[in-house]
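Supplementary Note 3. Input sequence used for the single-chain structure prediction.
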Amino acid sequence: MTGTLFFLVAMTLTGCGSAIDTGGRKAVTGDVTLDGVPIVEGSIRFEPQSGTTATGAMIVDGKYEIPADKGLLPGSYRVYINALEPVEDNRSADDMMNNPGPPRKELIPAKYNKKSELTADVSEPGPNKLDFLITQ
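The predicted structure, written as discrete structure tokens, is reproduced below.
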């Protein structure tokens, strides 16, 4: 009985081991639109203004999500957003690998990717919902 009581108290104090140490990283989510329309498919990348840990996520139907275990440390970031024009291609994966076709056009203006002017701050307390409503 004493062993069982000790086990239950120990599990209560440790939270049953379910807490994940994120190293201070924070979850980041948000919406991304171009001229008011959600980006169907693209990517977003956050590069720290100082430091070395960059991370990113895929944008799907105008939304992205970076979980805390892969998240961002509090601080300032330069943000890069990309989306390529969709391609209707009925070829097999092998055919596309051997002959990828012409390069796809970037739909997002360079001021949001190659020459990004976007910045964002990740805060300690959160939540960190960072929306980007970009325009042509």
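The chain is about 15% helix and 35% strand. The beta strands are 28-34, 37-38, 41-48, 55-60, 63-66, 75-82, 118-122, 128-129, 132-134.
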